[in-house]
Amino acid sequence: MFCQKCGAEIDNEAVICVKCGEGLNKDIGLDKKNGLGIAGLVLGILSIVIGWLIGIIGIAMGIVGIACSVKQRKLFPNSIANAGLITSIIGTATTTIILIAGLLVSFLI
Known about the structure:
Helix content: 55-70%
Order of helices and strands: HHHH
Distance between the termini: 68 Å
Radius of gyration: 20 Å
């Protein structure tokens, strides 16, 4: 078996890499590794959809989605984390624009 961080060969029973000290999470499945990325993606999509109906909640969901996706990218960078980050940014930006436009229209009327 090889360390995912440094590539050193390690014993199959090892819990940490003796070369770099990286913990070896043998019991973590693919779903657990992608948890924050999936949460970021779902929150990003919801921020886009809910942002049209309830602006503040859409912005909050987008911000939390950005935070989840950024943390996922630091732990296990993958395309789910990137998709979560992109949808969360789009959701936050569009919801903010819609909210500001709504406020401006209400002041002009």
